[in-house]
Amino acid sequence: MLLAIDCGNTNTVFSIWDGKEFLCTLRTSTHHARTADAYFTWFSTLVKHYGIEMDITDVIISSTVPRVVFNLRVFADRFFGCRPVVVGKPDCALPVQPRVDEGTQVGPDRLVNTAGAYDRHGGDLIVVDFGTATTFDVVAHDGAYVGGVIAPGVNLSLEALHAAAAALPHVDVTKPQKVIGTNTVACMQSGVFWGYVGLVNGITERIRAEYEQPMKVIGTGGLAPLFAQGDLLFDHIEEDLTMHGLTVIHAHNVKG
Questions:
Q1: Phi, psi for 103 (deg, rounded to 5)
Q2: Is-catalytic flag, 37?
Q3: Exactly one of 109, 119, 129, 137 is catalytic; which is it?
Q4: Concatenated DSSP letters for the chain?
Q5: How far apart are CA 87 and CA 221, in angstroms?
Q6: Does the chain have fewer CB atoms within 10 Å around its N or its C terminus?
Q7: Mind listing the pLDDT tens digit of every residue in the chain (256 residues)?
Q8: Contact 91, 55 (CB under 8 A)
Q9: How many CB atoms neighbour CB 238 within 10 A?
């Protein structure tokens, strides 16, 4: 039984994989000071609520926040008696090595998304991930990560707008009924929603033109289904793409 952990800038996700399916997925806020004991208390309580036997034999971690990795390593070692595989570290093998500029360190989240997307959809892909940042990952025909784009995340943009303009309120991200807003909240919602639809459309079109091959666009992240309502942005939506990618990389390391 595998415990897959994806630590992002905002949230950390724990999923239990039994080799065929995810038995449960748990989410907590990312905090570098959270100890291994605190992780286990939270994790074991919720796993018991789901009625799952916690027979964890392996752990794999992807983290964009380096400061939390130590306590997650201790968590795996102390409570499950295993040394975790950490994506991006030298002892973690990837199915295909990224092809980027020499010396470039690719974010673990992008490597994981690449592995998961290639396993499900083959190559020549653009993976759009709506997280703290909105990222575009280009996956080559053989499954290699070959570069991409990083843009500010949706919620980050909203928070910056609210913080910089005292008269503007904080609003939820939703699809507005009309493009032309007739009040402040509707105007902001239209700007964010249709602005990001335009961002995704524009960047994916430019990537396709530069790549010079037909490409599928895969959407993932919590806001992907919402933005899929705005236009024909994605060929597929994969809500569990990152966790699936972790299982792919883990299986590759076990096989290796």
A1: 90, -5
A2: no
A3: 109
A4: -EEEEEE-SSEEEEEEE-SSSEEEEEEEE--TT--HHHHHHHHHHHHHHTT------EEEEEES-GGGHHHHHHHHHHHH--PPEETTSTTS--SS----STT----HHHHHHHHHHHHHH-SSEEEEEESSEEEEEEE-TTS-EEEEEEEE-HHHHHHHHHHH-TTSPP------S-SS-SSHHHHHHHHHHHHHHHHHHHHHHHHHHHHTS--EEEEEETTHHHHTTTSS--SEE-TTHHHHHHHHHHHHHHH-
A5: 19
A6: C
A7: 999 999 998 899 999 999 899 999 999 999 989 999 999 999 999 999 989 888 999 999 999 999 999 999 999 999 999 999 999 999 999 999 999 999 899 999 999 999 999 999 999 999 999 988 999 999 999 999 999 999 998 888 888 887 787 777 888 888 888 999 999 889 988 998 999 999 999 999 999 999 988 999 999 998 888 888 766 789 999 989 999 999 999 999 998 7
A8: no
A9: 22
Length of the chain: 256
User: 182: which 2 tokens?
Assistant: 């007739």
